Structures
1.
Amino acid sequence: MMKNASESRQSPAFYALMVALVIMSVGPIILMLTTSLKLNVDVMSDTSSLLFTPTLKNYETVLCDVLWYAPEHVDYCNPTFSRALGNSIFIALVSTAITLILGCMAAYALVRFKFMGRGAISLTTLMMRMVPPAVLLVPVFGIWTFSYGLDGTFTGIILVYVAMNLPFVIWILQSFIVQVPIQLEEAAKMDGANPLQIFFLVVLPVIKPGLAAAAIFTFRIAWNEFLLANALLDRNTRTVPVTIVNSLTEYDIDWGVIMATGMLLAIPPIIFTFIASKQIITGMTAGAVKG
Amino acid sequence: MKSANLNKMTPYFFIAPAGVVLALGLLYPIAYMVYASFLDWNPSQLIGEADWVGFKNYSNLWVDEAFKESMWVTLKFAFIVVSIEIVIGLGLALLLDRNIRGISALRTIFILPMMIAPIVVGLMWRYMYHPSVGIFNRTLKDLGFESIPWLSDSTWSLVSIIIADVWQWTPFIFILCLAALQSLPRSTLEAARIDGANAWQQALYIKIPLMMPVLIVTLLLRLIDAFKVLEVILVMTNGGPGLSTEIMALRISRTASEFRELGAAAAMSNYLLMMLLLLTISMFLYNKFVEQRRQKMLALAEGG
């Protein structure tokens, strides 16, 4: 009650400022959403942009291949997008799972068996954060095509994403594992658990929040990445960001359809933001505040 | 005996998979890039067939006007966006660092622009900047003003990409600054208030100096990220008109895929990497310096 009293004494100007900030940051997203619900006629018309009949036709056009019915307005169903959506989901989920498993194991060993100092890990993480995907473009293209023979395959792109995300994941999980009391593990050892059992049954459940943060960050990068996907993947394995950019190069842009595509690409990160904003902020601030 | 052996092997067993993936997927490519930057190599050749040209790729870039232009655009872009974002982000954090209901909701909403795919961010802004259907020119027209060539004029296009980046990344600085402000020692702030410092003085002489370590790290992190921006600009302008928004990351990708000069692209990547390395090392050294100073202070405090 006390707290509420002191909260409500703020001047209305602050609330006005906050409303303005919210409008500014969500406005473009809302605009994308409304455009995705408009037909191209409405997008192009001169009348007010708020007066239109919302329609799901754009989404039907985009998803025509996976819908259980054939939308009437679609003459020719282009399967590119639904295929890309499937590819994106598969690549992002598999990369996230592999990164988490490998990252967890490495972080645990680094903390418990005192492999390297935390300074060394921080430095590596920082170094890796520095490498732009554009810098990896040439070597990854060369190696994946000529040495590994992985161009155009899911394995190839997943390998890059896992490698790109591992340093950050190891680093963030480390800071959570450090906080797991060693007594907990010793007690388990007394009861006759082997290292693997200790890891899976004792440590993992305790560091769940860290896992959530790491998972979201990894998923986001694998889901959103364009440059390397564009260089490595072929027609059948392309992800959504690549198809969006490809359809943009055409002269006549159908804004409704492309915004529907963009919306579908934006929805998973938006959902994550609302269900796990605390973990995301933890992940974000840990980098700067702890150093 | 067997179990003792197993225990000794455990750490290696736990680290090995991650190590292998990092070596194959990150370290080898980077080493490969350094090697490729000394070759005259195009994508239709095997790397073994490419000619060794020494430092020619590097020296060529110094007389390459387009490359120098892109370097200049990158520097300009990075420094302008980071300065604007620091000022707005820090200002908002200082202003909103109080018990307002809904601040955590505001933070959640603020993360959205950073979570959404850069491609989609570029798409949204390209639509808003659209000469006839975009919201900006529509509003200007409704108010009776001239429309602005947001993406088709070389001065405006740089302004446009800066606005989009500020929209996307100011929240990052705001959130970090807010976290830093909320972890400041309450007693110091209390003391300043009792001594009669007004809000301005508190911010200028107490809060900002105390936040300095976080601010510097935030600034460097943002600077590193600003050098890496690619997708948003690619979708909005694709570097144009002319070379006015062609930042280095974009130049690298075009050199590799359009001009098919992989050696030159690798040399450019190395230049970019060296710039980023410089920033990263200065950040690391700064962290070390702060840490040492803190420990010295602690030692002094204990000794006294």
2.
Amino acid sequence: MDALIRQTYPVASADYTSAGQASGDIKRRLKKLGIGGDVLRRVSVASYEVELNLVIHSLGGELTLSVYPEYVELVSRDVGPGIPDLSLAMREGWSTASDEARSLGFGAGMGLPNMKRNASDFEIKSEVGVGTEITMKFNLA
Amino acid sequence: MTIQDMVRVLNARVLLGEDKLDTPVYTACCSDLMSDVLAFVDEKTVLITGLTNPHVVRTSEMLDLKCLVFVRGKVPSEDILESAEEQGLVVITTKATAFTACGLLYQEGLRGVPVPLEWDSDDK
């Protein structure tokens, strides 16, 4: 099935100043398509969380938005460093964020659990030294 | 209450959104941890915070918040206010500390965003 919209946003490591710009653009695009309410809020929160994770934890990566007639999909791919223990990373309160990220109000260890809570479908794959890929789907119906 | 009532109760200064002070508010949250705000807030509410970085405004954008209250007289930088203005956010600042600001607003009837107080059986 072809996507109605597909847009990829590069996200640089440790670029705290522009962190959130991709999510802002994603929100505006979805709004233009007439997507609102609860789904828009859930996609917005999850995209901001995943974008922040790329900035805070990855060596750089990208975030891809695809909109299909029945769902919105967000895919985050990075080039490392990878997550050694996924079950620990998914635990609320667990975080390896830097002091810089914490000083901005992040790194409370809520990111991944919050993405999972907001998405209709959440999948994470990670390999140390290779990278992490997160796929989230948000049903429109 | 309305945002105008909050301004009165907190003896606050309005930095943005003079024209939206009649917006009704029913709940608020107070946090410097944007991670928590993103995780627990699921309504168009008011954020009371002492943090003045761009992510406070971005977090508000993602959650469609109505109003930002900066405590201890803090005023964010021009570029942060500009992005808040683009989103149509009301921004006010009060001399009160976060604790006092929350207490004053609670006394006037404002309540926290609903979060269950009961413990789950698997909570440690």
